Structures are given as structure tokens and as C-alpha cells.
Amino acid sequence: MIRTMIFTLLLAVGAMAGQAQPSPVLGSWSGKLNVGVMSLTLVLHLEQDGDSLKVALDSPDQGARGIPATVDYLSDDSVAVKVGIINASYRARLKGDSLVGTFTQNGFALPLALERGLSEVKRPQTPQPPYPYATEEVSFENKADGAMLAGTLTYPVGYDRLSRQKPTVVLLISGSGQQNRDEELFGHKPFLVLADYLARHGIATLRYDDRATGASSGGEVKNATTEDFMRDAAAGLDYLRHRKAFGKVGCIGHSEGGTIAFMLGARRLTDFIVTLAGPAVKGDTLLTAQSNRILQLSGMPATMTVEKYRQQEAIKQSPWLQWFCDYDPAADIRRTRCPVFALNGDRDCQVISALCIPALRQLLPRSKKNVVREYAALNHLFQHCTTGLVSEYSQTEETMAPEVLSDIAEWIIRL
């Protein structure tokens, strides 16, 4: 995923000296905070722990947890929590089985009612064991960067090691930010869903934890750029070839992973490429368009320019952002001679299809095997959506549109 500066509400932990009797306010509470054109799910946890009170405010729609806070007040029918690091507070009174109060941040006050209990997260596409195929826990090394990458190799249904017919295998490359092998976010596991679907259609996959994430270890992260992460993926492709258990060895990259896929293609390290919302224009142009689309959908003037975007302090402090802003994928896309299937959703707010689809069609070498396809009403995660805003990701039960899964499998099988 392209790194976006998103308003976050994060986990808070506070302490309060002992309560003589447990307050009826204790427990877990959840509700929706309406913020203009969108709503955010908030979950408040109030838990007695000996003489102290543990408080947690979750924003599952943003995948946000972990910022300390303090409890200002707790009684049998009222609570006041302060989350100083984001300049926010919540004050509420117990009414029946609801907490009814006000959430305030940076001087803006919004009504927030919470109902007792946790909000249920439904992910019907997430596969559940037992699986009709074999998996293997493996690891491979990027020696140049001192990174050991751990992952899951998924064999297709009916795989026979003794068969002369070797299956195609695909390396799955995640988007930006350190993510686990399932590319897990907002309760969704896109790469697990994709690996499961491909296995059921005769295609093997290797998905891996990003460097220094999950079971992977080593490798620079703080100052790493997409070039560093490209070397991790290249090591994965090399590992798959050396196993001599597969036929074609290709890759599927999502978002930044799509950039990496074209970098690998230009270096002739992969037999084919599938890009899911892969950038096709210069980084600063892409991120400026992203900012304007989000501003526009949020009801604000879309006035960001490339110059204004590059002046932001966050860019100066991030080697990844500096590299990404300067990188133009055009040369790598032109040099990619292997078959390419490039997909984008027309409501993607992060990698804008109106920019990238025309660029891909112009830059890709002509080949009957190359396919560039835009999908209606799909967002950056390839979910069916209304606006495409990030706030919809967690609220949508669908992890990946069925037509996208089937199109990827059919295209690979036809190669």
C-alpha cells in the first residue's frame, strides 16, 4: 500500500487507583464516530487490573493501536478519558446499556454513542482449515542486505512431487510498510485469500513476511527504499528457481509491490508479472494525485501541487518517501519484456487509475499476452466500494472481488 498520511486514533493505556466496587462502566464498548462523509468504528475497553484501570481506545477502521492515555474520571455512571498524544478526549455517561457522550479532538467536538460489546468483524473470504492442498514453512536469504525472509509455500491441489509436469509458482510481493505474509490489514488477509484461490486452480505461491516483520529477521528498515525491498523479492524468485520443483516462476505485486514487479521484469528476473494497482507514473505525481482525490472525496478543496507535496516535512525525514517521490517507473516498464497483467480499480484513491492505466498502455511493450484492465467500482484493495476512501476498507466484508481472483488465475493458466 502506498504510504498515506491518515488521521489515526490509537490504543490508549492509563492507570487509576483502586475502585472499591467494579463500575458498571467497565467492559468493552463500540460505536461509530461520524466525521463528515465517513464514519469510523471506535472501540473503548475499560478493564480493572488489580488496583489499576486499563483503558484501550481502538480504531479498527484504521488498524490503529498503542498510544498511552490517562483516565480523568470514572464513576458508576460516567467516564472521562484523555488521549493526549492525539489531543483527543472522550466523556460519556451511562444511559441504559449505552455510553452517550462527546469525542473531542483538536477543538472539534462530535457526539459518540457506544454500545456494550465488541463490533463484529466478518471476513467470509478468509479460508479456514483444513485445506485441500499442502503448505510448507520455508525461508530464503537476501545475503546482500543481511535479511532472512520467512514465508509459506502453498502447493496446488493435487500436487505430485514425482510428476514430470511442474506447476507454475508465483511470488506475492506486498505493498508499502512492513506487512506479514498475508498482507494483513483491517482484519483482511488478501494474500492468504489469493494464495488459497490460486492453489485451488493449479498454481503454487510463496508469500513471505517483509524484512524484520513476523518470522523474518534482519535487513535495514528505517532507511530502506523500494530498491532494498526489490532485492528481497529477487532473493525469493531465486529461491523458487533453485528448488527445481516448478515450471514458470512469476510474481504478483500489490501497490509498491507492483513497482517492485516491474523492477524485476526490467532485470529479466521473472517469467511473468501481475500488478495489482501498480504505480505507472513518477512518485511525486502519484502522491499528489492521491492527496487531491482524498481531499475531494472528503469535501475539501483539492489544491495540492507537486511542489507543495514535496515541501512537507515528512518527506525530508523519510528516505523511503524521498526515493519514491524521485522514482519514475517508465524506464522499467518499457524494459519489461515478460508477459504482464496490470489491474486497477477505477475508485482507487491511492493509485489513481486515470493516471496509471493510460501510462501503462503507452509504456508496455506490445505483446498479445499483455493485458491492462480497469475494474469498475473497486478500490485499492480490489474490494467493491462506494467512494474508495480508506475508511471503507475495514467496513467492507469482502477481501477481494471474485472477478479479480478468477481473472488472475485464468490469465496465468493461459500463459
Overview of this protein structure:
The structure is a single chain. The chain is an alpha/beta fold. The protein contains 11 helices and 17 strands. It has helices at about 190-200, 225-240, 255-265, 285-295, 305-310, 315, 320-325, 330-335, 355-365, 390-395, 400-415, and strands spanning about 25-35, 40-50, 50-60, 70-75, 80-85, 90-95, 100-105, 110-115, 135-140, 145-155, 170-175, 205-210, 215-220, 250-255, 275, 340-345, 370-375. Strands 9, 10, 11, 12, 13, 14, 15, 16 and 17 form a 9-stranded mixed β-sheet that branches. Helix 2 packs across helix 3 (about 255-265) and helix 4 packs across helix 7.
SSE order and pairing:
Elements (H helix, E strand, L loop, with lengths): L26 E9 L2 E12 L2 E7 L11 E5 L3 E6 L4 E8 L2 E8 L2 E9 L18 E8 L4 E8 L14 E5 L16 H10 L4 E5 L8 E2 L7 H17 L6 E6 L1 H11 L6 E4 L6 H15 L8 H5 L2 H4 L2 H8 L3 H5 L5 E6 L7 H11 L7 E5 L15 H5 L6 H13 L1
Key descriptive features of the protein:
415 residues, eight-stranded antiparallel beta sheet, disordered N terminus, nine-stranded mixed beta sheet, alpha/beta, globular, single chain, 11 helices
The arrangement of helices and strands along the chain is EEEEEEEEEEEHEEHEHEHHHHHEHEHH
Mean pLDDT: 90
Q: Could you describe the largest sheet, including whether it forms a barrel?
A: 9 strands, mixed
Residue share in β-strands: 25-35%
Helices, by number, come to: 11
User: How would the global form be characterised?
Assistant: globular
- The radius of gyration computed from the alpha-carbon positions, rounded to a whole number of angstroms, is 23 Å
Helix proportion: 25-40%
End-to-end Cα distance: 27 Å
Unreliable stretches (pLDDT < 50, length at least 5) are: 1-20
Helix/strand structural class: alpha/beta
Count of beta strands: 17
